[in-house]
Amino acid sequence: MAVAAPRIAALAGQLLGIPLPVRVRAWDGSEAGPPGGPVLVLRHRRALRRVLFRPGELGLARAWVAGELDVEGDLYAVLDKLLAPLQDRAPADARQKLAAARELLALAGPQLPLPPPPPPEEIGRRQGPLHSLRRDRAAISHHYDVGNPFYELVLGPSMVYSCAVWGGGAEDLQAAQTAKLDLICRKLGLREGQRLLDVGCGWGSMVLHAARHYGVHAVGITLSAEQAAYARERVAKEGLEDRVEIRVQDYRETSDGPFDAISSIGMAEHVGAARYREYAERLHGLLRPAGRLLNHQISRPPVADENGYRVDPFIDAYVFPDGELAPVGRTVSLLEEAGFEVRDTESLREHYALTLRQWVRNLEANWPEAVRLTSPGRARVWRLYMAASALSFERARIGIHQVLAVRTTSTGGSGLPLRPRAWTEPA
């Protein structure tokens, strides 16, 4: 008799403190939960053990990556219904929770190992102090060196892995990414012959756009060898070797300033709270007086106890090892402490949600090829993290800001126009 799903739904409700908000189908074919809508599918008993031994997002994520847990129907709807209860679980009687966990463990089967080993896509043991040069290189490699063809499937022709800017005629991903790159160039006030440093240059899209359309001499730095090789090929193909240089280099190793402008797009999340002041000071030192910095960075709301802030365990284990998010107010304060004058801050939160949903569509439309290029588990990691991130931006759980800062001259000059918001309209 197929009875697993009703017991799972009842016991999970006891653990969460509320009725399970989604329908469940178990490995024995039984179903339980709210009728209609998407279904959370437990394909293997092992999924229960993963959740019991790592309650919350990481246990569910491990089961998802391993293919033991799946969703039939709208993935966004399931995530939206599950994430809030997991993050804000109602209090429940400790004895009741222990009894529910024991019964779920029995359902999972005594013959399975305790606990199941993590899927191989999870990052292994990390070596060296947090945010040391060696450890940062390994963390960046884990995320970015999974194959340029895979990123081409997800990102599309722009090969830009950060929030696009939609509207104003930019109605597809390629146009929206071009609009973002051009907005940054205008905020930086780029002109013919200037020197631009792009920190965390990715596959070279920013430096290529700035050199091609604004005539700058650009240096792009990245810790990913695969990104650097791809970017150099693009530079050579466009005949811009005399204007664009790509380096495998850490921002802490860059010393050939001054630059007229610096862009840092989707890179500062990797810096870490302990290193952020150093990051800001180094970039300040690399700019000439009146030079501008455009810092494009994901943010999070402040919490009552900042010392108790913890990185999302799934993101840390599978997506961005050692990545950290900070409130935008802290970012602004640290930039100012490093000597910058912050002149403009713009939120693009809704734009990132739209961008992520387009990346998910690209991944799903090319699913067999994405699996072939990486692994089933790696493709599932990307689908889950991008879909969950889209919801987090839509629900204002996280945000993203472009912060424009300037290194003022000794007399306080900024080089900025009196009404800098004119950059919101293309020239």
UniProtKB/TrEMBL annotation:
SMART domains tied to this protein: PKS_MT
Record SUPFAM superfamilies: S-adenosyl-L-methionine-dependent methyltransferases
One GO BP: methylation
Organism superkingdom: Bacteria
GO MF annotations in UniProt: methyltransferase activity
Keywords: Lipid metabolism, Methyltransferase, S-adenosyl-L-methionine, Transferase
A family per Pfam: CMAS
InterPro entries to which the protein is assigned, alphabetical: CFA/CMAS (IPR050723), CMAS (IPR003333), MeTfrase_dom (IPR020803), SAM-dependent_MTases_sf (IPR029063)
EC number(s) stated in the UniProt entry for this protein: 2.1.1.-
Gene3D superfamilies given in the database record: Vaccinia Virus protein VP39
Group of enzyme by EC: transferase
Domain (Polyketide synthase-like methyltransferase): residue spans on this chain: 150-408
Record's keyword annotation contains Transferase: yes
Sequence similarity: Belongs to the CFA/CMAS family.
Protein name in the entry: Cyclopropane-fatty-acyl-phospholipid synthase family protein
Origin species: Streptomyces boetiae
